[in-house]
Amino acid sequence: MSGFGLAGPPPAPLITGWKHLRTGKVRDLYTNEDNEILLVASDRISAFDWVLPTPIPNKGAVLTQLSLFWFELLADIVPNHVISDDVPGSVIDRAVIVAPLEMFDVECVARGYLTGSGWSEYQSNSSVCGNTLPAGLLDGSQLPQSIFTPATKAEIGDHDENIDFAQCEKIVGGDTATELRGLTLKLYETASEFAQSRGIILADTKFEFGTDEDGEITLGDEALTPDSSRFWEASTWKPGGAQPSFDKQFVRDYLISSGWDKKSPPPELPNEIVEKTAARYEEAYFRITGSRFNG
């Protein structure tokens, strides 16, 4: 059973001049005669490796515009795949035209704080993905320095699996793994400093890289959105438990409390949860960019 449930992925809308390539958890991909990619972010939301039946209004547009903000801010560190945001009117604001990349088969994750799967691993062996950490850290603790914690890419409905650097080297090669680690940490540290200036802690984030037609490593997918990152409120940060965050927190909390078994198709979300989640995404956009989202 896929993460879409029994009905499978929804049909992708027809877009004149573009041929549908595939549908992911939250995005639809198209191509044109110039071999460009139209990357369309839907309002679908996923949790616990399932795509939920209830969309979050404006989510796709918020995440697309936030990614564009970060791509521009970080362009001096690494090139990105964006060609243009001049897209068909039916997908305005929620889509970008990007260059095709040969993607690396690893998720490039940087962590500056201990939480999530990193916290779980630390509790069992005092390390995360082969990075040995000092004793006495709590859930939410800041790490002595940011760490690279790669993961394998999972198919829809499966779990990403954390790996150590040696396993990453086996997948992409030693030199490439070293370069990806350096880029990931530099991007994270630059973005983290910027987010801190806006009163937000960037606890961790995931990047995806590929090579362009000239073989140059290029940043693809999305960048530093609430779907790929943990953003925390800096003013209330206190290690020792879950932190208030700008992401799917309301959705995850509701699903856990609902009694859903995480094996069968997930339930619809109540209006209150949808509204709170949408507001949290838009608040993240405002806090980071300084501009209100006009959906």
TrEMBL record:
GO cellular component: cytoplasm
Entry-linked CDD domains: SAICAR_synt_Sc (cd01414)
Keyword Nucleotide-binding: yes
EC id: 6.3.2.6
Reaction catalysed by this enzyme: 5-amino-1-(5-phospho-D-ribosyl)imidazole-4-carboxylate + L-aspartate + ATP = (2S)-2-[5-amino-1-(5-phospho-beta-D-ribosyl)imidazole-4-carboxamido]succinate + ADP + phosphate + 2 H(+)
Family annotation (InterPro entries): SAICAR_synt/ADE2_N, SAICAR_synth, SAICAR_synthetase_CS
Associated pathway: Purine metabolism; IMP biosynthesis via de novo pathway; 5-amino-1-(5-phospho-D-ribosyl)imidazole-4-carboxamide from 5-amino-1-(5-phospho-D-ribosyl)imidazole-4-carboxylate: step 1/2
Annotated GO MF terms: ATP binding; phosphoribosylaminoimidazolesuccinocarboxamide synthase activity
Keywords: ATP-binding, Ligase, Nucleotide-binding, Purine biosynthesis
Domain SAICAR synthetase/ADE2 N-terminal: 21-265
Pfam families: SAICAR_synt
The organism's place on the tree of life at top rank: Bacteria
One of the GO biological process terms: 'de novo' IMP biosynthetic process
Family per record: Belongs to the SAICAR synthetase family.
Xref: NCBIfam families: PRK13961.1, purC
HAMAP family: SAICAR_synth
Protein name: Phosphoribosylaminoimidazole-succinocarboxamide synthase
Gene that this polypeptide is encoded by: purC
